[in-house]
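Take one record.
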Amino acid sequence: MKSTPHILHVFSTFKQAGPQVRTVDILNRLAGSYRHTVMAMDGHFEAAEGIRQSAEVRTLAPPPRRSSLVYPLTFRGLIRELRPDLVETYNWGAMDALAGARLASVCPIVHTEDGFNPDEVVRLKKRRVWARRALLNGIYQTVVVSNVLLDIALKQYGLRPDKVQHIPNGVDVQRFRPAMPRSRRQELGIAESTLLFGYLGHLRPEKNLALLLSAFAEARLENAVLVFVGDGASRGELEALTQKLGLGARVRFAGFYPDPAPWLAAFDVFAMSSLSEQAPISLLEAMACGLPVVATAAGDTRAILPPAQSPFVVPLNERPAYSRALRQIAENSDLRRDLGRQNRERAERNFSVEAMVSRYERVWQGAISSYGASDLAQLLTVEDCDARK
């Protein structure tokens, strides 16, 4: 009887963020087809709370940290001990594990790239580019979530076209949908007549939320409130800036909530101001909820949204353009309704979660079967040689 394939997933962290949310969704939807071990290099596994009991998943702390030159050897030993059927690594923070898996040579490797650390928002680090060039052409495949990353993988990392695949993120359009209950507004005491702009995600420097705050203040919108749902290192600075700009009760900091759907249901407009994104899952969730969007042109944001949204996707870090976009969308309820409808249709048509899960599974199956086929071919060659002696 054939055993259930075992996949080792290695993340820099398994806190709740885009790559982790996507992976949890995939593991849940493929429950029973695979066994999974999830390792987080920082020892944080908060996102694992969303994994259903039907998915066979265990978490594993990383081996003790050693020097950058020796750490891949540690992973080599660990992977040889675990002997998974596939190693799946995520982003730069798991590159030591990827190198160790290559040294172990016991199973195929798939690597997924979602974006960059804050220290590479402006320019990629040459050492990391060269490391990817050296490592990624020697694994089964690299998956990227955006066209921007696909271009980088081909042109800067020098990956062969057959070694890289673009799989767009997907969204559950049944879970995220228009006309859900708007109870979060009531909890905050925000009337239905008040226009509620909302941001959902981490409060980190690369999200450039000071731009959103400043543009909101500059727009001088009547009867409008801005809510930040999420937490992070920038919260204190943003709260201080809120007071400095005199926004007071017009800006709320709701904190982190594991389920974003009720908050998206409460928003009238979804707002993003990032310096660095690729294919943000929160954007897809907002689109599926039928929300109009004001955003910066980071990563694939403009390409993800329908053409009618283009005037509301502004250049990075340009406050006047962002402020104008906020005013224009605030002044026209028919426009908001039309954009929301088109965003919902686009999410349903182009970003199906079922299609995303199916494509990831095909990559996993292809990797596992190709490795087994390679081993079998090598064995048959050896036996054929022995038979000729």
Remarks:
- Residues 373-389 have pLDDT under 50 and may be disordered.
- The chain has 14 helices and 13 strands.
